[in-house]
Write a sequence for this structure.
């Protein structure tokens, strides 16, 4: 598959913020070549094509059949993921697809099964796994520094902006859900990455501020693994001061990640150990630089393709995150 | 009832940390006179009596029948609350009883009903309502600065100490529950104070580190009012670095309280407003002094007695907090 | 002067980090047109010209005589400032010159006097005046919120990087001084902006870590105005964790600025009032976005040109900052 | 000298805040016996004597001649230090004397020389050396974790209270100086403890807010050792939010201490290492408990007596701190 002097050749569908970020990330890689971009917003697409000095294609379905492309990056709203990913896979392209993988578990599974069947790599855009503080957290965790895990406590939110109720995010047909299907995907995925699969789910949904019913602007979820670890998750579109906080407690200590850079404040990884008779001591690492998670995400796609293995945060992870969100939705519906 | 030159005369049962704190708080009041203390730990009781220059009584049941006492403060473990409070009430004393009001909702209701029947004041020891940052939060809230409330997010925890599994707190016969019946009482009470009665409850319990099954060392609770406000509560005995955090979000802003002084760090009250197009701005008040909640708690008891009204944080609040904990226990049991 | 349909036409000499930042800032202005860039580093210059879609000129002395340019931005090391600024001014261009205005007070005065004689605008690149937290500080100060000023305490520093001793900054012939002539310029300028002219100066220099004697890697300065206000300044190339802190105390309160974004951490402006009997209260504003001081700097150049007035942070300010640094150098020399 | 079953027997002169703190500290020591207290404020003295269950003596000169006392603790204003310490030493008592050791270098030397001549222990009340975060800083420093020291930057201040200009601290005859002779003593002593003797001194004094001229409410000092290390010190009575900050930079890293507990906020010790290519990493220890420096101070007195050695922070240190303050005063006078 990988020809062109060993370069991976890429096409991007969707040229909004996420498409641009992923396009710019490719610049860091000598062996990545952005061939073309496509979007149904022509002006936006043209700007990106110009800035990236690549082709502009009007129709995404023509992009995905090009022979000179190895990987398709899908950065459109969720309702397009199924047709676009499947078309790309059918045409033998590896796929990196923005989260959520699809609008619902069924769609997500279709994509994932097709990738398996075709023997192609499918990565879901869980870029948070590649944030430096999260990577640091994972490293500490894998070294056993906090011992056996007990629970995760995580909050992720933004305040939105006037008119949020008219955003595509407020349209269930497009997004498949509310904030839980949006930023919720990341924290569900991270929780599962650290604790394993969840077998039990409960939670409350709230449509508190934005006029987006039946979608939620706040979701409070409790997830539990078969062995009893708990993840307590809150995601919010009424978090008036942007917040990302991820806390993981184990029998021997704890790890916290705060901030994601930019509007979320400086990204920090913090490690503390259980010590009953000593003053509280922490190791604090600040990642003050810009967010390089998009490059790291691509690095993983590239490695997976080259090493002929599934990437970390792959289609199965994408399915699971959506599935858990839907279990919360179901639990909430039953409660009413 | 109040004679003795207008002074309120007080007896304290239980001379541990909480008994001592409440005894020392009385020193600040010219019109409060600590008459006697009693405990089944004679050495501890003697030290307190000496320090406070008051009488030491061997038997609490003789203390509660003294004619020269107006108020009984009960600071014993929860299994003693019902007999002690009821004896005090039967003998015409007002009562301030350490939280939880009792081991279970039934006991708590017995106490509260007796107080009502007797026309006596009953306050449950929810001293957190009197912490300066919480008072500040309440003031901002009452001024409407954050608008209609949406949700509360609160975490309260300590790390325990070796041998915690042998503490009376680990004995269900004494405490009636685990950490939810311990520090959980405060955050349930505060949540109810701000949001009103909860009509729906879900949650997970965990016995993760301490060998105290069937009691929980971690409780994750979601509570909801009839009008849809949510309280997300986590209390923990495996919070290796002591933490108190109480966050209240409304349609127009948010209030946070962090710290309680001492081992919980500086107590802060923080106010932020929803402002989509401006940099994040907060008003931050630090209460660096010592914890004066115990004096303020007594001030409320005194005022309630003098003004012939029920105190804030009264028996009914005590009943409700225990009732909600038990709803969580029940929900968790059903899940198994 | 301003023709071309009201657009200001700009040439940039020096295409390193500062040249690039100022070029990118111009993009935000519809009425600014970057005509050409020039540098003695051809590859770097070519990249910038390509990215900005402007001309590349090999020789700066041909750039400054072009008739289709209104403003020259000088972003070269300090030893080039005198010849470049003067050539630009002689050819009727307004000038924005990176700090320090020149290597020593005499050179700085030559530039400033020529600008005055020619009636042209000269701004020294004190972009820190345009940082949002500094602007906020100035606004609070001008509103009288902290009353009459007493003193400034400010620290600014970085840790350098291996090989710093070979950087042009370590060459006295190029830079005219060490860290005091580098980041020191900003905090001297800010101190003077808030407190007025300094009439008395003392200080210690240190060459503690970097092999750059006789240049200093640390400068500790005390400056005093005629009316007794003090500025205590420390600038450091051995500040192993980047730091910017600017504290201004007045009779009625204080203002602090912490961070500058990026590697200096989130930029914050903090206001506190003198209040003897109340808990410590502060207003805290976080500017989490990217650094927009470069656009704001240009906005001031543009306004000064349009309004036919000298800009804020003009040549006279540039002279004063260098003069004060040299007074510290002199005081330090005498001490030896 | 030490008889009484091995107990050290103590008399305290001065029963204000510092006298009380030192009396209460003695309670922690089984082998310390507070025999008597004395003060020219009889009511205050009586309260302390009652609380400590020790004798009350009207006249300090009778206290210092008692045969049943081994150590005199002097906690009076500075003008009394010389007569009291000398009388105690003449009568064979060891002395712990509140800082400053005396009003001026000459008085301080008289006391120190007499102690030497008599072979008695003399400790100056530099309790900050015994604060847990400072002890931690010293431990890290002694382990070589920050390498060769470069400089210290330290700020210490309070906001005072209305009427401060009438406090004895505002009387040069009593205190010998202003804020530099008050809290300044601690930071001068700490700086000298870490960097060694200072051979060069400059600084500015300010009487900015309080009506206490010729005394200073702010002192800005720069001190330098023979080998070039610098201490930059600012002490203030117009620090509207109480502050203690002590930063020590070395060639390989830095140590910071922030807070002292109580009104200064949580006491923290922070260690960072020079690391050019890594994200900023720090080890942070929080000492959230109460201030135990007074017990630790006594522990050092006790050990010095028992081990027949001079204590840490002894008379010579007391002389040096006052001498440096006076060098700053002199430098400031010359400037005028």
């Amino acid at each position: 598959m990988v020809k062109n002097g060993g370069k991976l050749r890429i096409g991007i569908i969707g040229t909004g913020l996420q498409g641009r970020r992923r396009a710019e990330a490719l610049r860091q890689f000598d062996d990545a070549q952005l061939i073309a971009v496509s979007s149904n917003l022509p002006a936006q697409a043209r700007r990106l094509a110009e800035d990236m000095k690549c082709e502009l294609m009007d129709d995404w379905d023509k992009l995905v059949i090009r022979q000179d492309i190895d990987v398709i990056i899908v950065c459109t709203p969720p309702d397009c993921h199924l047709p676009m990913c499947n078309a790309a896979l059918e045409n033998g392209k590896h796929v990196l697809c923005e989260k959520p993988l699809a609008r619902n578990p069924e769609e997500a599974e279709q994509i994932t099964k097709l990738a398996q069947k075709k023997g192609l790599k499918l990565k879901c855009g869980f870029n948070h796994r590649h944030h430096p503080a999260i990577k640091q957290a994972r490293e500490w965790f894998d070294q056993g520094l906090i011992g056996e895990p007990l629970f995760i406590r995580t909050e992720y939110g933004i305040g939105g902006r006037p008119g949020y109720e008219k955003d595509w995010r407020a349209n269930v047909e497009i997004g498949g859900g509310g904030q839980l299907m949006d930023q919720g995907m990341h924290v569900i995925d991270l929780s599962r990455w650290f604790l394993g699969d969840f077998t039990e789910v409960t939670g409350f949904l709230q449509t508190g501020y934005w006029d987006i019913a039946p979608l939620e602007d706040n979701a409070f979820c409790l997830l539990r693994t078969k062995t009893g670890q708990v993840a307590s998750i809150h995601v919010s579109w009424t978090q008036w001061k942007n917040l990302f906080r991820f806390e993981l407690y184990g029998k021997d200590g704890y790890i916290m990640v705060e901030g994601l850079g930019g509007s979320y404040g400086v990204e920090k990884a913090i490690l503390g150990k259980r010590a009953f008779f000593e003053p509280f001591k922490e190791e604090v690492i600040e990642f003050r630089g810009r967010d390089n998670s998009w490059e790291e995400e691509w690095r993983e796609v590239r490695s997976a393709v080259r090493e002929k293995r599934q990437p970390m945060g792959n289609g199965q992870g994408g399915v699971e995150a959506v599935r858990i969100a839907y279990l919360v939705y179901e639990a909430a519906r039953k409660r009413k």
